[in-house]
Amino acid sequence: xxxxxxxxxxxxxxxxxxxxxxxxxxxxxxxxxxxxxxxxxxxxxxxxxxxxxxxxxxxxxxxxxxxxxxxxxxxxxxxxxxxxxxxxxxxxxxxxxxxxxxxxxxxxxxxxxxxxxxxxxxxxxxxxxxxxxxxxxxxxxxxxxxxxxxxxxxxxxxxxxxxxxxxxxxxxxxxxxxxxxxxxxxxxxxxxxxxxxxxxxxxxxxx
Length: 207
Prior knowledge:
This is PDZ domain-containing protein. This protein is an alpha+beta fold.
């Protein structure tokens, strides 16, 4: 659990030493890495403010704070917590000043693929149209194959192939067009997310 030891950020006058941070928007805060990730997600979503849920003197409070870098110092875990996590990670230096940076979650994203947020899908109408095109494209393909099978059973295999070749080719072209269009839409969505992450990286370096 994150317990504030000192508030070094003048924008966070509502916070006090001893406050226990519970959630940042919809993200639970078991450690500083989770807080970094929550801050980063709020910036990706271009949110101006965030809701910080905390416990103070057995009361739960909701505090509106600006998104982005937070200058907070946290108390170090108790000795029992160090014993449990000693093999997982080395203990940090006591009284070390911790600056919460929105660029820090990028390292966590690389270390665990389960934390990588999926790209937000846009162009819903275009994706729906492509799905219909792909569905109807398979219909002439299936019908053409049925015609070929029937033709061979009636000793008219060559004629069946000639009759079925055109609808099969048209159907396959429809399916291919739909799949290529969806791939282009996926590339566009991924490029959008890449631009957002690049902007956050540049912003973190400037700070």
